Amino acid sequence: MKKHIKILEFALSTLWRRKYKNLGIIVVFSIIVFTLSSILLLTYSFKREAVAILSGAPELIVQRVTGGRHDLIPLDYIKEIKSIPGTGEIIPRYWGYYYDISTDGNYTILGAYDRLHDSIRLLKGDFIKKGRQGVCVIGRGVSDARFAGIGNKIPIVGSDGKVHVFTVIGVFDAKSSIVTNDLVIISLKDIRSLFSIPEDQSTDIVVRVYNPVEVNNIAGKIKSRLPDTRPITRSEILRTYDTLFDWRSGLILTMFSGAVLAFIILAWDKATGLSAEEKREIGILKAIGWETSDIMELKFWEGLVISSVSFLTGVIGGYIHIFFFGASIFSPALKGWSVIFPKFHLMPYIDPYQVVVLLFFTVIPYMAATIVPSWKASITDPDVVMRG
Fold first, then answer.
1. Quick one: 124 exposed, middle or buried, by C-beta within 10 A (0-12, 13-18, 19+)?
2. Is 299 exposed, middle or buried (0-12, 13-18, 19+ CB in 10 A)?
3. pLDDT digits (tens, 9 = 90+) for 221-262
4. What is the DSSP letter of 93?
5. What's the number of CA atoms in the CB half-sphere (13 Å) around residue 277?
6. What's the start-to-end Cα distance of the chain, in Å?
7. Under 8 Å CB-to-CB from 260, ≥6 apart: which residues?
8. In whole angstroms, what is the distance from residue 15 CA to residue 141 CA?
9. pLDDT digits over 102-112, tens only?
10. What is this structure's pTM?
């Protein structure tokens, strides 16, 4: 054990003698790990946020499509959907988007409906009671962006060009900040007036299904009976999120492929041979009695120290960047148009599998690139090595 400690001490002193060169390697290595870990952590966190959102989402949403675009759906469709065996509660929903010029934010306006209160936890204040108008419940992001609390008024310009003023009676929160952060809830009568929605139509229809296994079958029956509709299942939405974030993370990785290529060149340069100084050092160690196994252990410790410091620095830096600074570098590419939403903070999620994969594809190649050329030099005659 004492021998191994002494070899480790010698490895540290060797690294310190070439501190500027090793510092450059650590900086490049850390930047690569930082980039990769940031993208992986951000993508995984977005996926977990999506799962958190959809955990309370309805099994089936029915929208009407006109000319390939989402259109208002007649309430008469509810009767036809209700006649399909296996369908449970059916609720028409009223919602839309509102761009606020004063805060440069895009808010989601939702009409209050039964059971909505059960899926949202209020932070403070009251929820909208049935029949009450001119009031709203807002998300934390909207509250911060508008500097609005309970009792304050929020003006919203309707589709008719008139200004509708709502009094804030509650600010709500949820387990996932992305669920309610940009949300403004008003009464059904208010949202119909705000967006000029006819009495016999709604934005879409939510369908509860008794047996989750039958969701796809019921969706198919709705499509066959109502050809101008588009049934959307919860699993389809989740798959869309997965595909979207996987594609965007792959796009970012492609953009940073130059940095990854630089790291590969660095590892290849170390693997193709040692410098004259390093070869001379190995020759001297062999001449004074060091075994090949001792030299291999020495280079192992050197590679482990550099790769471990670089890996930990990169991963910790990526974690801080994503969860403390809001992923300011990569989030615009992954969020897409949603960057105009009020800001929200991601919940810290770490996938151990991704960390292990990142470790395997960064630390292991560098370790191999450090040990292999040293092994070749250590099995060569010391005199030949020192002569170059």
1. exposed
2. buried
3. 999 999 999 999 888 887 777 676 666 566 566 656 666 666
4. E
5. 4
6. 34
7. 32, 35, 36, 253
8. 49
9. 888 888 999 98
10. 0.67
